[in-house]
Amino acid sequence: MKQSMTLGKVTKFMGLTGFLGTVKNVFTGKLEKEDFKNFLRKVIVPLASIFLFFGLWHIGSKRLYNIEADHRINKALVEQGPAEAEKVRACIASGDISCQPNTLPSPAQVWESYKTLLADHYTIRADKQAFKEKTEALNAKRIANGEAPIVYTGRPSFVDQILTSLKTVFAGFLLALFIAVPVGIVIGLSKTLRSSVNWIIQIFKPVSPVVWLLLVFMIVKTLNKDSSGDSSFIISFISVGLCSMWATLVNTAMGVSSVDKDYINVAKVLKLGPIQKVFKVILPSSLPLIFTGLRITLSVAWMVLIAIELLAQSPGLGSFVWEEFQNGAVDSNSKIIVAMFVIGLIGFLLDRIMLTIQKMISFSKNDGI
Questions:
Q1: Which position has the higher pLDDT, 207 or 363?
Q2: Is 11 part of any domain?
Q3: Cβ(187)–Cβ(197) under 8 Å?
Q4: Are 206 and 352 in the same domain?
Q5: Is the pLDDT of residue 171 over 90?
């Protein structure tokens, strides 16, 4: 019973309640004739779209592979003659990694790269544990003597970089939250203030994350000159926060300004102070719009994070994608697509988390999409 309740919560969180409920009705024989269209829409069509997506992907990758292979063979024929062209053809046909066309990978190649990245993570994790055990006694002595411990400086695994990106995006999201919500409340409470700062919002809201990164870089590097630590994380999360906060700022101001006047009148009758009025009347009424802004902010933060990490040379998925692109190995394209799917899946889960919190706090009936 407990497992069934847990499964129900998970499927509701993932937005799969309707899909799995329809599948259950099919296997239990409870599907009525009038529900057949619903079954097609919720089960057959989604499954067909998945197969179609992977089928088109496989066909497209095969076509691009053949185009690149023919190009290499023709190039060898023109530049070095028929004998060399035949060697290139034979090498490609043999499956030798050194001469395989480097183009869009197939779904099978991406799956193999995923397994390689996972195995690599376990290897690196074992190395870290071995290093920790090897240096444990020495580090204890160094700490006792007031010296810094020796830390593992090997390359991070793919999972480590995912965790680093999550840490950066949550730091940026919290920065956006602590700036945008209070400022949005203040702006929403005053028509004069809204009209006076509207130009700032309209100008800075569409600014590219690259520009925010450069601006933050100038400021942090100036203030952090005497620090020997790595400032890339600070630059990254501040840039993410400033770039993504505008949706929450605008929605908070809109939510506060559109609170029902009857609620404000009740607050006056009860003689609530300004702070009490904000926390007991205005904020509860504005929560749906504020959380809509927060969901957009978190999505934007996750989206711009990759570009910001890439430019700031900060460890994370952005630097992983760029390093694989620069590497140019045969499996680099496959690893980039693995990262693409991981980025998309994490973005989806972050949105579902925000939607769940919104329902818990604001009791909204909106299921979201």
A1: 207
A2: no
A3: yes
A4: yes
A5: yes
Instruction: Give residue 329's domain range.
Output: 156-362
Three-state secondary-structure class, residue 105: coil
User: What is the C-alpha to C-alpha distance for residues 54 and 52, in angstroms, rounded to an integer?
Assistant: 6
Say if residue 199 is in the same domain as residue 280: yes
Q: Is 92 helix (H, G, I), strand (E, B) or coil?
A: helix
Distance (Å) of CA 14 to CA 71, 117, 338, 367: 45, 25, 21, 11
DSSP string of 154-182, one letter each residue = SPPPHHHHHHHHHHHHHHHHHHHHHHHHH
User: pTM for this structure?
Assistant: 0.79
DSSP state of 331: T
- In this structure, is residue 246 part of a structural domain? yes
Tens-place pLDDT, residues 261-283: 777 777 777 777 777 877 778 88
- Please tell me the distance from the alpha carbon of residue 351 to that of residue 173, in angstroms, as a whole number: 13
User: Which residues does 322 contact at the CB level (< 8 Å), separation at least 6?
Assistant: 310
Averaged over 144-165, what is the pLDDT?
85
Residues 85 and 214 placed together within one structural domain of the fold: no
